[in-house]
Amino acid sequence: MESTTTSDIEIMLSSQSKINEVDFENLTFGTVFTDHMLVCDFKNGEWQKPVIQPYQPFTLDPSTKVFHYGQAIFEGMKAYKDEQGDVWMFRANENFNRFNKSAIRLAMPEVPEEVFMGGLRKLLHIEKDWVRYGMGRSLYIRPYMIATGEGVIAQPSSEYKFVIILSPAKSYYNQEVKVVIANHYSRAANGGIGAAKAAGNYAGQFYPTKLAVEKGFQQIIWTDDATHTKLEEAGTMNVFFRINNTLITAPTSERILDGVTRKSLIDLAKREGIDVEVRSLLVDELLNAAKNGTLKEIFGAGTAAVINPIVGFAYEDLYFDLPKIENSMAMELKDKLNKIQYKLAEDTFGWTEKIE
Amino acid sequence: MESTTTSDIEIMLSSQSKINEVDFENLTFGTVFTDHMLVCDFKNGEWQKPVIQPYQPFTLDPSTKVFHYGQAIFEGMKAYKDEQGDVWMFRANENFNRFNKSAIRLAMPEVPEEVFMGGLRKLLHIEKDWVRYGMGRSLYIRPYMIATGEGVIAQPSSEYKFVIILSPAKSYYNQEVKVVIANHYSRAANGGIGAAKAAGNYAGQFYPTKLAVEKGFQQIIWTDDATHTKLEEAGTMNVFFRINNTLITAPTSERILDGVTRKSLIDLAKREGIDVEVRSLLVDELLNAAKNGTLKEIFGAGTAAVINPIVGFAYEDLYFDLPKIENSMAMELKDKLNKIQYKLAEDTFGWTEKIE
């Protein structure tokens, strides 16, 4: 192995790469994984030595706590290749910080920076060939942690496994997205775990989303659970509304994920002189804006899709198509963000980090 | 094997039992498992043949959906041995029905009755020796289902594993339980998954409970997340309050689990002529009752502990000890319920089913 500052990470390389078996032109998101993964176990009250090893299954007892009590958190971010063939991470440090906030909320141990960030840098260095150049192409990074202690008693686990797996990706959503505004189901409680990237937050969304899909929609715009009057998230993404030339997105809270794409878009929009309001848009305001023609755009923002324009929404018995517009802020911001990610424009924010 | 109506269940018996290695006098709840488990896989849109096999670990890909999106549900119930050595299930059909309600809410496939109930009966028949006679002794039954499909995209899995494992148990809580009334954190949202026995509901409780433990309490009494004025559950149990001679327990809702012990206690109390009110008790009512001496008892109700008396509670800066009373309704109801479970009293409700 090359000499890098990884004396504290054990590296076991795969004897053979499967990269030549992968059709990079036809990738289904999140289904193909690279040759290696990082694994670090927490036991006896401390993190053990992280290991980069061939991608391989885990062997877990049927009483493993993640199966029963849901202590499981994750992150999602991407690495990109530039025209020169260098690989860049985008704001991975933000994901690292959020991961540990999720860990605290789920009563799981925080992962040390040298394990999460140090391990990730080394893993990306080893898997550089899996990042392909070209707009929309990326290597999706999935760090996660699960409770691996055994025993069916509802108490926090004393053992955990931190893992990073990598999946080559092309663009995420291709279809036109129509959404339903939630008026009964919800994704997060006040004082709950909605701000954590916890596995349990996702499972609860599937059934309401299935009901929406059965009615011809693809996603749900979630509202606050107490009153269903405040617009909060779109599917598994943050959500932005453009009324006239103002962008509006909900403030982060215990119910809303502090999305890295969301905050990057807010910064980018401000730099571009776009008026951004971080406040709760009310359902009534949205309906009025749709009726009087001032509602121009709605889009989701998240790592997987970056920006996902919404073409129409339903609320109770009403349905509204979004107007087709020339100068879409969603498309402008997506383009500017992509150019930073692919190193095609100057990164004035310091968001990108080169993998050496 | 004996001839039973299990031609549709494949049975692979362990070559050697580990029962003689188990110290039944010193059992930690949920840590010792019997020789066999039932496993049934769902794939290609249908349930495969259930298998009773030696208790053994699972091999799962790092991208398995239960690790990432939290599709995981479970049940908990008990089997008891009577003086004659016969084994009885207690209201297992209620757990079966609730399991499938949880499955629907988590967008998981419902488990057929012949797999859940038929498999359970056969498994208990095989493991009869693991049920010991004596008050407080039981065999804890843990059916659960996890998403076993692979891929890190936030969509319902297409593959699942249904499992039943069994754990011999003695009584659950021994310590005196003091609780904190939640005024910030919460366990369930309106329109959320609080009524489902979903893994994700438990992980979210651990951190607030840890904060309570650090202050010298053992559990939290959860309140509604929107106003924190309605008393809803105690830890992972339903909760009953006795004011004067009236028992009060919250109605089931989207936020509250429809507990089998809870509903059994309501029926038992009514049969005994105890006044039961199924309504939301308000925090203010509780504080007033504690101050004016009409609050007599608080207890949690759930399968693991059956009834768990609470000896004191804190609310913000206030602390109240519960009075020590002679004629405890909690103890009376627990005794009557236990006698039905152990077949020491007539089961006028038809709650018990003999394992043949």
UniProtKB/TrEMBL annotation, chains A, B:
This protein's UniProt keywords: Amino-acid biosynthesis, Aminotransferase, Branched-chain amino acid biosynthesis, Pyridoxal phosphate, Transferase
Residue list for modification N6-(pyridoxal phosphate)lysine: 197
Keyword Amino-acid biosynthesis among record annotations: yes
Record's signal peptide: none
InterPro entries per UniProt: Aminotrans_IV, Aminotrans_IV_CS, Aminotransferase-like, B_amino_transII, BCAT-like_C, BCAT-like_N
A GO biological process held by the record: amino acid biosynthetic process
GO molecular function, one term: L-valine-2-oxoglutarate transaminase activity
Pfam families: Aminotran_4
Name of the top EC class for this enzyme: transferase
Family: Belongs to the class-IV pyridoxal-phosphate-dependent aminotransferase family.
Protein name (record): Branched-chain-amino-acid aminotransferase
Organism: Flavobacterium croceum DSM 17960
